[in-house]
From TrEMBL:
Xref: CDD domains: HP
Protein name: Histidine phosphatase family protein
InterPro entries per UniProt: His_Pase_superF_clade-1 (IPR013078), His_PPase_superfam (IPR029033)
Organism: Shewanella oncorhynchi
SMART domains: PGAM
Amino acid sequence: MAAGRSLSHFRFHGFTLMLKHYFKHNLGINIKRFSLLTILVIFTCLGFTPISQAHAESRLIILVRHAEKADTPANNPQLTPKGEIRAASLITALSRTPLSQLIATQYLRTQQTLAPIAEARHLPVTIVEAAKPIEGHIQHIVEQVHAVKGNTLIVGHSNTVPLIIKALGGPEIQAISEDDYSQLFLLSLNDDQPASLIATRYGQE
Protein backbone atom coordinates (compact mmCIF):
# COMPACT_ATOMS: atom_id res chain seq x y z
CA MET A 1 0.00 0.00 0.00
CA ALA A 2 1.28 3.49 -0.89
CA ALA A 3 3.81 4.98 1.54
CA GLY A 4 3.28 2.00 3.84
CA ARG A 5 -0.06 3.30 5.08
CA SER A 6 -2.40 0.63 6.42
CA LEU A 7 -6.07 0.21 5.63
CA SER A 8 -6.88 1.32 9.19
CA HIS A 9 -5.11 4.64 8.51
CA PHE A 10 -7.36 5.40 5.57
CA ARG A 11 -10.45 4.37 7.50
CA PHE A 12 -9.39 6.68 10.35
CA HIS A 13 -8.76 9.53 7.91
CA GLY A 14 -12.08 8.91 6.20
CA PHE A 15 -13.91 8.97 9.53
CA THR A 16 -12.29 12.32 10.34
CA LEU A 17 -13.41 13.77 7.02
CA MET A 18 -16.92 12.45 7.58
CA LEU A 19 -17.14 14.19 10.94
CA LYS A 20 -15.87 17.48 9.52
CA HIS A 21 -18.33 17.25 6.60
CA TYR A 22 -21.22 16.62 8.98
CA PHE A 23 -20.40 19.59 11.20
CA LYS A 24 -19.98 21.95 8.24
CA HIS A 25 -23.03 20.98 6.20
CA ASN A 26 -25.49 19.92 8.91
CA LEU A 27 -24.56 22.22 11.77
CA GLY A 28 -22.87 25.07 9.90
CA ILE A 29 -19.68 24.66 11.93
CA ASN A 30 -16.25 24.74 10.29
CA ILE A 31 -14.05 22.52 12.46
CA LYS A 32 -10.93 22.19 10.34
CA ARG A 33 -8.94 24.09 12.97
CA PHE A 34 -9.84 21.69 15.77
CA SER A 35 -8.22 18.43 16.81
CA LEU A 36 -9.91 15.10 16.23
CA LEU A 37 -10.24 14.64 19.99
CA THR A 38 -12.18 17.90 20.27
CA ILE A 39 -14.37 16.89 17.34
CA LEU A 40 -15.10 13.48 18.83
CA VAL A 41 -15.92 14.83 22.28
CA ILE A 42 -18.38 17.40 20.91
CA PHE A 43 -19.81 14.84 18.47
CA THR A 44 -20.58 12.59 21.45
CA CYS A 45 -22.05 15.42 23.53
CA LEU A 46 -24.38 16.32 20.66
CA GLY A 47 -26.10 13.01 21.17
CA PHE A 48 -24.62 10.68 18.57
CA THR A 49 -23.21 7.19 19.02
CA PRO A 50 -20.88 7.02 22.05
CA ILE A 51 -17.21 6.89 21.12
CA SER A 52 -15.72 5.08 24.08
CA GLN A 53 -16.09 4.71 27.78
CA ALA A 54 -13.20 7.16 28.23
CA HIS A 55 -15.44 10.02 27.12
CA ALA A 56 -18.54 8.96 29.07
CA GLU A 57 -18.20 11.95 31.41
CA SER A 58 -17.87 14.51 28.64
CA ARG A 59 -20.45 17.30 28.80
CA LEU A 60 -21.44 20.09 26.51
CA ILE A 61 -22.30 23.56 27.77
CA ILE A 62 -24.20 25.54 25.15
CA LEU A 63 -24.27 29.30 25.63
CA VAL A 64 -26.21 31.97 23.78
CA ARG A 65 -27.11 35.54 24.42
CA HIS A 66 -30.83 36.25 24.76
CA ALA A 67 -32.65 36.88 21.48
CA GLU A 68 -33.65 40.31 20.12
CA LYS A 69 -35.31 42.48 22.76
CA ALA A 70 -37.69 45.44 22.66
CA ASP A 71 -36.51 48.94 23.50
CA THR A 72 -38.99 49.39 26.34
CA PRO A 73 -39.34 49.04 29.22
CA ALA A 74 -35.63 49.64 29.61
CA ASN A 75 -35.25 47.70 32.86
CA ASN A 76 -36.90 44.43 31.72
CA PRO A 77 -37.96 44.33 28.05
CA GLN A 78 -39.57 41.36 26.37
CA LEU A 79 -38.49 39.76 23.10
CA THR A 80 -39.49 41.33 19.82
CA PRO A 81 -41.30 39.22 17.18
CA LYS A 82 -37.89 38.66 15.54
CA GLY A 83 -36.52 37.56 18.90
CA GLU A 84 -39.38 35.09 19.34
CA ILE A 85 -38.52 33.54 15.97
CA ARG A 86 -34.88 33.22 17.00
CA ALA A 87 -35.86 31.66 20.32
CA ALA A 88 -37.93 29.05 18.50
CA SER A 89 -35.00 28.29 16.20
CA LEU A 90 -33.04 26.90 19.18
CA ILE A 91 -35.31 23.85 18.97
CA THR A 92 -34.02 23.06 15.48
CA ALA A 93 -30.42 24.10 16.16
CA LEU A 94 -30.20 21.69 19.12
CA SER A 95 -32.58 19.01 17.86
CA ARG A 96 -29.96 16.25 18.21
CA THR A 97 -28.46 17.51 21.46
CA PRO A 98 -29.60 15.95 24.75
CA LEU A 99 -30.15 18.53 27.47
CA SER A 100 -30.26 18.05 31.22
CA GLN A 101 -30.82 21.61 32.37
CA LEU A 102 -31.69 25.10 31.16
CA ILE A 103 -30.37 28.21 32.89
CA ALA A 104 -31.62 31.79 32.56
CA THR A 105 -31.48 34.99 34.60
CA GLN A 106 -34.40 36.77 36.24
CA TYR A 107 -34.95 38.90 33.14
CA LEU A 108 -37.81 38.18 30.76
CA ARG A 109 -35.63 38.24 27.66
CA THR A 110 -33.53 35.29 28.82
CA GLN A 111 -36.50 33.26 30.05
CA GLN A 112 -38.46 33.92 26.86
CA THR A 113 -35.48 32.82 24.79
CA LEU A 114 -35.57 29.47 26.59
CA ALA A 115 -39.37 29.12 26.67
CA PRO A 116 -39.86 27.31 23.33
CA ILE A 117 -37.16 24.69 23.88
CA ALA A 118 -38.15 24.29 27.54
CA GLU A 119 -41.68 23.45 26.44
CA ALA A 120 -40.46 21.15 23.67
CA ARG A 121 -38.12 19.24 26.00
CA HIS A 122 -40.40 19.37 29.07
CA LEU A 123 -37.55 20.85 31.11
CA PRO A 124 -37.81 23.47 33.86
CA VAL A 125 -35.78 26.66 33.63
CA THR A 126 -33.38 27.28 36.49
CA ILE A 127 -33.15 30.97 37.37
CA VAL A 128 -29.76 32.25 38.48
CA GLU A 129 -30.24 35.87 39.40
CA ALA A 130 -27.92 38.34 37.74
CA ALA A 131 -26.91 40.60 40.59
CA LYS A 132 -23.91 42.68 41.49
CA PRO A 133 -21.12 41.98 41.94
CA ILE A 134 -21.16 40.19 38.61
CA GLU A 135 -18.41 37.82 39.78
CA GLY A 136 -20.89 36.33 42.24
CA HIS A 137 -23.43 35.73 39.48
CA ILE A 138 -20.83 34.00 37.32
CA GLN A 139 -19.77 31.78 40.22
CA HIS A 140 -23.38 30.76 40.85
CA ILE A 141 -23.73 29.80 37.18
CA VAL A 142 -20.60 27.65 37.38
CA GLU A 143 -21.86 25.94 40.53
CA GLN A 144 -25.21 25.22 38.90
CA VAL A 145 -23.54 23.76 35.82
CA HIS A 146 -21.48 21.38 37.94
CA ALA A 147 -24.46 20.46 40.13
CA VAL A 148 -26.22 18.62 37.28
CA LYS A 149 -24.82 15.90 35.05
CA GLY A 150 -25.35 16.08 31.32
CA ASN A 151 -25.50 18.96 28.85
CA THR A 152 -26.59 22.46 29.87
CA LEU A 153 -28.04 25.29 27.81
CA ILE A 154 -27.39 28.75 29.26
CA VAL A 155 -29.03 31.95 28.03
CA GLY A 156 -27.13 34.94 29.30
CA HIS A 157 -26.33 38.51 28.34
CA SER A 158 -23.75 40.14 26.11
CA ASN A 159 -21.52 40.90 29.11
CA THR A 160 -21.98 37.58 30.96
CA VAL A 161 -21.61 34.93 28.23
CA PRO A 162 -17.84 35.59 27.72
CA LEU A 163 -17.29 35.58 31.49
CA ILE A 164 -19.16 32.29 31.94
CA ILE A 165 -17.11 30.63 29.20
CA LYS A 166 -13.86 31.73 30.84
CA ALA A 167 -15.03 30.73 34.33
CA LEU A 168 -15.84 27.23 33.08
CA GLY A 169 -12.31 26.82 31.76
CA GLY A 170 -12.81 28.01 28.20
CA PRO A 171 -10.77 30.60 26.33
CA GLU A 172 -11.23 34.34 26.51
CA ILE A 173 -13.49 35.48 23.67
CA GLN A 174 -14.21 38.86 22.17
CA ALA A 175 -16.99 40.96 23.63
CA ILE A 176 -20.41 40.41 22.08
CA SER A 177 -21.64 43.54 20.32
CA GLU A 178 -24.98 45.00 21.32
CA ASP A 179 -26.62 44.15 17.97
CA ASP A 180 -25.32 40.57 17.79
CA TYR A 181 -27.87 37.94 18.83
CA SER A 182 -26.95 34.91 16.73
CA GLN A 183 -23.77 33.56 18.31
CA LEU A 184 -23.92 30.06 19.76
CA PHE A 185 -21.01 28.63 21.74
CA LEU A 186 -20.32 24.92 22.30
CA LEU A 187 -18.03 24.42 25.28
CA SER A 188 -17.00 20.80 25.84
CA LEU A 189 -15.94 19.83 29.35
CA ASN A 190 -13.96 16.69 30.04
CA ASP A 191 -12.25 15.82 33.31
CA ASP A 192 -9.17 14.53 31.48
CA GLN A 193 -8.76 17.31 28.91
CA PRO A 194 -8.80 21.12 28.75
CA ALA A 195 -12.13 22.66 27.81
CA SER A 196 -12.65 23.13 24.08
CA LEU A 197 -14.79 25.83 22.47
CA ILE A 198 -16.49 26.01 19.09
CA ALA A 199 -18.31 29.21 18.10
CA THR A 200 -21.06 29.07 15.51
CA ARG A 201 -24.37 30.85 14.79
CA TYR A 202 -28.02 29.93 14.79
CA GLY A 203 -31.23 31.44 13.45
CA GLN A 204 -31.33 34.12 10.81
CA GLU A 205 -28.67 36.81 10.66
